[in-house]
Specification:
The complex is a heterodimer.
Chain A (H helix, E strand, L loop, with lengths): L4 H6 L5 H12 L6 H4 L1 H11 L6 E5 L8 H5 L5 E5 L9 E6 L4 E3 L4 E2 L1 H12 L12 E5 L17 E7 L2 E9 L15 E5 L6 E6 L2 E3 L17 H10 L1 H4 L3 E9 L3 E8 L5 H6 L3 H11 L6 H11 L4
Chain B lengths: L1 H22 L12 E10 L6 E7 L6 E9 L4 E6 L5 E7 L6 E11 L28 H15 L5 H14 L3 H7 L5 H14 L4 E8 L5 E2 L3 E7 L4 E5 L5 E2 L4 E6 L5 E4 L3 E11 L3 H9 L5 H4 L7 H27 L8 H11 L2 H24 L4 H25 L5 H4 L4 H41 L2 H9 L3 H12 L7 H6 L1 H5 L2
Antiparallel strand pairs in B: 1-6, 1-14, 2-5, 2-13, 3-6, 4-5, 7-9, 7-12, 8-14, 9-10, 10-11
Helix pairs in contact in B: 1-15, 2-3, 2-4, 2-5, 3-5, 8-9, 8-13, 8-14, 8-15, 9-10, 9-13, 10-11, 10-13, 11-13
The chains are: A alpha+beta, B alpha+beta.
Chain lengths: 314, 511
């Protein structure tokens, strides 16, 4: 029923306490955390580092600015409303267009102008923000998701999560929504975590509710052996996030746009540990390898090369 | 750095604790019964024109009970206190030309020594007493003959001195024959039996003596004196109860004096009245300590929380338990991995349970949460802004609390007052968190966190309510330094949580 702690430690599995003390507390300076908690700031950082992100149409910071919504959008009628400090996709509203009755959402609902403004007002009051404090609403380009997972991701929008330690991509997984998770790529709710071999970009095995699975539990499609496109580019762009954030231990979330390719969605200073289950390997083992090897003078290419060579399937 | 800091904290904390516990005799455990009694021996004599001398036995200084704040009072009589080699103390009052009936008082408070359960080290054995020391008073030659006869009759059936003493006491108490009657005398009081037994035993060269004392218990007021005998076993004085003949521990007995002599002797006047009264002071060991501290100048003795007004003491006592509760919480979260709402919510709930009792507390919490939650779900349908919504929830909680108080009062459950002590704001935040978790992550996660919080709160409640824990922290607040050190060390614990051993169970399988 439970694992022996010694066995887990021998495989280099990282626990929450280990992550929080040795990697987050020791490697991620507190004053740099707001950079990743606030998605507006993250976007600026990413632009500086040359990492592609979904385009930002505008930011609504005060209730009074809600009136200027149409002005900010210009002629665009397809956009996403996102709380800058939200978590787990809460408060995100995807608008596809406008018709006579009001705004048409991706979910199929039609929202009146007033209801949309109310939603933005809720975002500003901090309804969806992590700490309940005042927040700002971002108006963002809608990502046209590329179907890179074939039939596996049919219930929603999958994303990639890459753990980057000191600029070295360490472990990766795809998060795939299921009908059970209500179309959200949230592993707590039944989304599938799909391990990705860092050295090749091929998917390995999946986990759902912390148990290892080989096939998609709903469609039965095999999860193993799907090739991620532009893998090197993905690793490059995730590694590039290390420098400007100044955070040693980072979770990089990436989505695939049909036209623009991989885009950085957000950064996470305390990425979860389920990635270990999906890769059937211990994070701590890899992190210690990196800590042993990496020197400040290593270039970014060297760091990615190191990852490509060192982290194969277990 | 951290290790050094922790080492220093632990060293200082335990050092102070050890010093105060061992060197200064601060109580280590809370006593359920009272440990402080006040004793008064009142002696009244008739007027005497030519002066009079009153001598009263007062309790020995050493023993299981120790006197504090001794006061010897009289009306214009001079006083001297004499100590005997066996620890007996006599107060001698004398005065000339006593016109009115005079009363002398001995008053003292007795403190139960927490560490010395045996009092043998205070009592010299026969070899340490002077040679002319008499264990039992001399009696006439006829009595000596009778004693020897009784002894030889009893000794036949006795295996050793212990059994012999018991048999002898039994025989003296129940015996109807002339031998025992003559030895005990007309009045077969326990004093008479004890003194006869001591006499018979001492005729046989066994060191035995009468002890007079009173039981210190819950009884209050005038207490009749009891007598028992002590026999020297070669190592210690063993007490025997006269009414049963059995060896006893006599833990609750305050010794007044040893030997055959009467409690009070008066020369030159007639004795009117002797009254020995005891009042148990209804305070715990903590207050006993406070009493004992009176007059000490040692800074480490002075530095206690006992000087605070009693209301403040109660608040401080509660405050001191919070770190313990938090320690439980840290353990449950960092080592076990129990999910809880907020950081300190469970401890605050535990504090609220303190005000009611556990079951009532749980019932009230359940009621408030249930009603609060249903209102919260209703509010969320109205699409309110966050702060006004919280305010509305809080108002509903206040109303529910008042309702619970009124209902509880009308059923005279007696919880009306303490209901208000439930931290309202905390409950509001709990309901908010609970319903947000419910809406976003589903009822399963919400109930997991809720159950986790309750489990931690109940665990914290039990630990915080251990009498020993409360007592130790109150008397030795320096232990907080140790708790602090433990928390600092837990802060760098990077091992697995119990919950993770289950979560990562698939990772240890295929190897």
């Amino acid at each position: 029923m439970i694992a022996s702690p010694r066995k887990l430690a021998r495989r280099g599995i990282l626990g929450i306490n280990g992550r929080n003390t040795r990697y987050v507390a020791d490697g991620n300076p507190r004053r740099r955390m707001p950079l990743v908690n606030d998605k507006v700031k993250t976007k600026e950082l990413a632009r500086e580092a040359g990492v592609p992100v979904p385009e930002l149409y505008g930011v609504i910071e005060m209730q009074a600015q809600i009136k200027r919504l149409r002005h900010m959008l210009d002629e665009k009628r397809s956009f996403v409303i996102k709380p800058a400090c939200g978590a787990q996709g809460d408060g995100i509203m995807v608008v596809e267009g406008e018709n006579r009755k009001g705004w048409r959402l991706a979910s199929g609902r039609v929202l009146s102008d007033r209801a949309l403004r109310h939603h933005i007002s809720n975002v500003l009051s901090g309804m969806y923000s992590l700490n309940g404090l005042q927040d700002v609403a971002m108006l963002e380009e809608t990502v046209r998701f590329a179907d890179i997972f074939g039939g596996v991701a049919e219930a929603g929008v999958p994303d990639l999560r890459i753990i980057v330690y000191r600029g070295v991509p360490t472990m990766a997984m795809a998060r795939i929504p299921t009908r059970e998770s209500d179309g959200k790529a949230n592993l707590h709710k039944g989304g599938i975590g799909l391990g990705i071999d860092i050295s090749t970009g091929l998917t390995t095995l999946g986990v759902q509710y912390d148990r290892v699975i080989d096939d998609h539990p709903e469609s039965g499609a095999p999860l193993r052996g799907i090739q991620m496109p532009e893998w090197r580019a993905i690793l490059d762009m995730s590694a590039r996030c290390h420098g400007p954030t100044g955070l040693d231990y980072l979770g990089v979330d990436i989505v695939f746009d049909e036209m623009r390719g991989p885009l950085l969605l957000e950064l996470n200073a305390r990425p979860g540990l389920a990635v270990q289950l999906a890769n059937c390997d211990g994070l701590d083992r890899r992190l210690l390898l990196i800590a042993d090897w990496v020197r400040p003078e290593h270039t970014q290419d060297e760091r990615v090369d190191f990852a490509l060579h060192s982290f194969g399937p277990p | 750095m951290l290790r050094l800091l922790c080492a220093i904290l632990i060293l200082v904390g335990f050092g102070l604790f050890g010093y105060r516990a061992i060197m200064l005799d601060f109580p280590l455990t809370p006593d359920e019964r009272s440990v402080l009694w006040s004793l008064e021996i009142q002696t009244q004599i008739a007027p005497a024109d030519d002066g009079a001398k009153v001598s009263v036995f007062i309790p020995p200084k050493e023993g299981r009970f120790r006197p504090m704040n001794e006061k010897l009072l009289s009306d214009r009589m001079s006083l001297t206190v004499r100590s005997g080699p066996d620890g007996n103390r006599k107060a001698l009052w004398s005065g000339g030309n006593i016109k009115q009936p005079a009363t002398v008082y001995y008053r003292a408070q007795f403190f139960h020594q927490p560490f010395h359960d045996t009092d043998k080290r205070y009592h010299k054995g026969p070899e340490d007493l002077p040679e002319n020391y008499r264990f039992a008073a001399e009696r006439s030659p006829e009595q000596q003959t009778l004693a020897k006869r009784l002894m030889s009759e009893t000794a036949r059936n006795a295996y050793d001195d212990d059994v012999l003493t018991s048999l002898l006491v039994d025989r003296l108490r129940t015996g109807q024959d002339t031998v025992t009657r003559q030895l005990v005398g007309k009045e077969d009081t326990d004093t008479a039996i004890a003194s006869a037994a001591a006499f018979v035993l001492s005729q046989n060269d066994t060191a035995a003596r009468v002890v007079h004392g009173i039981p210190l218990g819950d009884k209050q007021g005038t207490i009749p004196l009891t007598a028992w005998i002590e026999r020297w076993t070669g190592e210690e004085w063993q007490a025997y109860d006269v009414m049963t003949g059995d060896p006893v521990g006599h833990k609750d007995m305050l010794v007044l004096w040893r030997g055959d002599a009467p409690q009070v002797t008066v020369d030159g006047a007639s004795l009117r009245r002797i009254r020995t009264a005891v009042t148990p002071l209804d305070i715990g060991s903590v207050a006993a300590l406070a009493e004992r501290r009176a007059g000490t100048e040692n800074l480490l003795v002075m530095a206690t929380l006992l000087d605070l007004p009693i209301n403040t003491q109660l608040v401080v006592q509660m405050l001191l338990t919070i770190p313990i509760g938090v320690l439980v919480l840290v353990f449950m979260r960092q080592f076990i991995g129990v999910p809880t709402f907020g950081t300190f919510m469970p401890v605050l709930i535990a504090l609220a349970f303190n005000a009611t009792d556990l079951l009532t507390g749980l019932a009230i919490l359940g009621t408030i949460l249930l009603i609060g939650m249903s209102f919260r779900f209703f509010f969320s349908k109205l699409n309110l802004l966050l702060v006004p919504r919280l305010a509305a929830t809080l108002t509903v909680i206040v109303m529910v609390m008042i309702l619970v108080s009124v209902v509880a009062d009308s059923y005279s459950l007696g919880t009306g007052f303490s209901v208000t002590l439930f931290p309202i704001v905390i409950l509001t935040m709990t309901i908010e968190r609970l319903s947000v978790t419910w809406e976003e992550n589903g009822p399963e996660d919400a109930s997991k966190e809720f159950v986790g919080s309750i489990v931690v709160a109940v665990a914290a409640y039990f630990v915080m309510n251990l009498a020993l824990v409360r007592h130790l922290l109150f008397i030795y607040p320096e232990l907080l330094l140790v708790i602090l050190a433990i928390m600092l060390m837990m802060g760098r614990y990077s091992g697995f949580r119990l919950s993770e051993l289950r979560r990562f169970r698939d990772l240890s399988k295929e190897w």
